[in-house]
Every structure is written in structure tokens, then in C-alpha cells.
Design goal:
Layout lengths: L1 H17 L15 E7 L4 H15 L3 E6 L5 H10 L4 E4 L14 H10 L4 E5 L3 E3 L4 H9 L3 E4 L9 E2 H8 L7 H5 L2 H7 L13 E2 L2 E8 L6 H14 L1 H4 L4 H11 L5 E2 L5 E4 L10 E4 L9 H15 L12 H5 L1
Parallel strand pairs: 1-2, 1-4, 2-3, 6-10, 11-12
Antiparallel strand pairs: 4-9, 5-12, 6-9, 7-8
Helix pairs in contact: 2-12, 9-11
Length: 327
């Protein structure tokens, strides 16, 4: 009970302290073939604004596209239009998932892959903060290379053929019975060598994190669909509809993209409760770790200060979401 109360109090304080993001200059979209895509709702308007504005500030590339999870209000849409230079707003319910699962952010992944046919698409979670220059992301865009943030609990920090990944990832070089019956991510990774995905003679894999990923221009959903159907046949339909299958599929698709790359984990980090590196450029605050100590709040406030220093806001439109005013 106490940890939940503390997290709720920290979240309320965060909303109060960080609503200053709405006093920062709006983004100026660039029609340069780059899309920064996120699925959001009204509950994450403040953290999302910090995530997208801090990334765009350091990237200086791209236009914004958001997918409404069904909760965005008219007031939210006005804020998005002003602060993000009239972004395209898509609806979750309009996505055709085909034979893939519905829910679990599958709509997000499939929409990204559809858009990546013509543009380079970056997937950005709202629980992220960009701290400094991101040259590796810019290099990936310019070279049209897909990228991924490294995932959790993995000794393997590179993209490898699935047989080599299996030998390096699992203790003893082989998955155990508990791997197959555990969390869906580990369960899927335990059967990669048993999956014959159409069109791939020697498939590759990396344990990535879909919180921050880049999809090269020229991508499509065919590989994601084929992988989903193959995994569902091996693991069973019920298991393949569990939360987490989208992230495994995202990692598989990126790993099998030409010249894909893993962002250097020392600079682009998932936060797990320990202090990040002094020169970290990008942090992804996962789950309850977002409210561990005050790391997330401090970095968000720092990003807001940097954004305010970057230019003056037009005072004629200065909005805050309703939940921020009520905090």
C-alpha cells in the first residue's frame, strides 16, 4: 500500500512541477522524410510533451504523428496542434491489424511499418527524456538504417543470427523448460530456432526495447505479420495474445532490416533505479522505476529549462491539460 501511495504522490507532484513544458516554444515541424510517432492518451500529455520536445530539440528533424488511444480530449488536441505544429492524429480503432493480435500496441507497430514504406519512422514512448545530442540516431536516419534501444537483462548487445543469439543469451546455451513457460518475451526467444519464418533463410534477433526505435524507409508489415503467424503457431494463439508480443516482433523486424544497429547502451539507457552515466544522451524510464527516487522528475525539469532557454513562447496560446491544472 505504501509504495503505491508514494508513487501516486510523486506522480501528482510531477504533474505540478512539470506543467511548465507548456510554457516552452512550440516545435517547428520539418517535412524532411522523418516521422516521430507515438501512441498517447490524455493521461500522458505532460510526459509526452517532454519526451517529444526534448527529442526534437536535439534531433532537429522530422514531423510528429500521434495515435490517439481513444482518450484524447478536444483540449488535448488543441494543445497538440499548437505545441507540435499541427501533427497528424490517427485513431487506434481505425487500424486494420489483419491476422496479427489486436491490442498490446500492435496497432502502433503495424501503423509505423505502413508509414515506413515512404518515410523514416521513429517510435518514441512518452516515458523518455532526451538529455543531449543524439548523433547515432542522426547517422541512422541519414544512412536509412533501422535502430533499437537495447532491451533489459541481456548479455547480448548486438544483432545476431538466432542460433548464435540463443547460445549466448540462455545459460548453458540452451533454453530451459521454465523459459518456455515464463514471460512471453522469454518464451518467444526460447523458440526462435524452431520458427521457420517465410522468406528468411537465416533470421536474426536482438533483445531490443520498443520504447525508442527507428524503422528504415522502405519497410512494410509483411515480416511482422509472418513472424506473428509463425510464433502464434508455435506458442499457441492464447499465449501470442499476451502483452509483450509486439516488442518481440519489433525487435525481430529491426534485426532483420538491412544494416540495422543497436544504439550504444552506455549513451541510450533504460533506467532501472541506478544512476545513469554522466554522458547519457537518452533515458527510458520503465514502469515503477519512473518514480524511483527523483531521477525522472529532475531530468524532465532539466529538459524544460533547456527548452525554455531555446526560444520565447508565443504568449497568445499557452495551454495546460486539465489533469495538470487539477494536480
Amino acid at each position: 500500500m505504501w509504495p503505491q501511495l508514494m508513487a501516486r504522490a510523486k506522480r501528482s507532484m510531477y504533474n505540478h512541477l512539470c506543467r511548465g513544458i507548456f510554457a516552452t516554444p512550440p516545435i517547428v515541424a520539418r517535412q524532411d522524410g522523418v516521422v516521430i510517432f507515438s501512441m498517447i492518451g490524455t493521461a500522458v500529455m505532460i510526459p509526452y510533451m517532454i519526451a517529444i520536445k526534448s527529442l526534437h530539440h536535439h534531433l532537429q528533424r522530422g514531423r510528429v504523428v500521434v495515435m490517439d488511444d481513444g482518450t484524447l480530449t478536444d483540449a488535448d488536441r488543441l494543445l497538440l496542434r499548437h505545441h507540435l505544429d499541427s501533427p497528424q492524429i490517427l485513431s487506434l480503432k481505425d487500424v486494420d491489424v489483419g491476422p496479427c493480435p489486436r491490442g498490446g500496441t500492435w496497432e502502433r507497430l503495424l501503423t509505423i511499418l505502413d508509414m515506413a514504406a515512404d518515410e523514416y519512422v521513429i517510435q518514441l514512448d512518452s516515458d523518455t527524456v532526451t538529455l543531449g545530442p543524439v548523433p547515432h540516431v542522426l547517422e541512422a536516419i541519414d544512412a536509412n538504417r533501422s535502430f533499437t534501444l537495447l532491451g533489459a537483462e541481456t548479455p547480448v548487445q548486438e544483432i545476431l543470427p538466432v542460433d548464435i543469439f540463443t547460445r549466448r543469451f540462455f545459460p548453458g546455451g540452451e533454453p530451459a523448460a521454465e523459459d518456455f513457460t515464463g514471460h512471453i518475451q522469454g518464451a518467444t526467444e526460447s523458440v526462435l530456432t524452431r520458427m521457420a519464418v517465410p522468406g528468411l533463410d537465416r533470421p536474426r534477433y536482438v533483445r531490443g526495447c520498443s520504447g525508442f526505435t527507428g524503422f528504415a524507409r522502405g519497410s512494410d508489415r509483411r515480416l511482422a505479420t509472418a513472424f506473428s503467424q509463425t510464433a502464434s503457431a508455435v506458442l499457441g494463439v492464447k499465449r501470442w495474445h499476451e502483452w509483450g508480443t509486439e516488442q518481440v516482433t519489433s525487435s525481430f523486424v529491426i534485426a532483420n532490416s538491412d544494416n540495422a544497429m543497436v544504439l550504444p547502451p552506455a549513451l541510450y539507457e533504460n533506467y532501472w533505479g541506478t544512476a545513469p552515466a554522466a554522458d547519457a544522451r537518452f533515458l527510458h524510464f520503465i514502469g515503477t522505476y519512473r518514480w524511483h527516487a527523483w531521477e525522472y522528475q529532475q531530468h524532465c525539469l532539466s529538459a524544460i529549462r533547456d527548452l525554455k532557454a531555446g526560444g520565447a513562447l508565443d504568449q497568445s496560446v499557452r495551454g495546460e491539460p486539465e489533469q495538470a491544472r487539477a494536480a
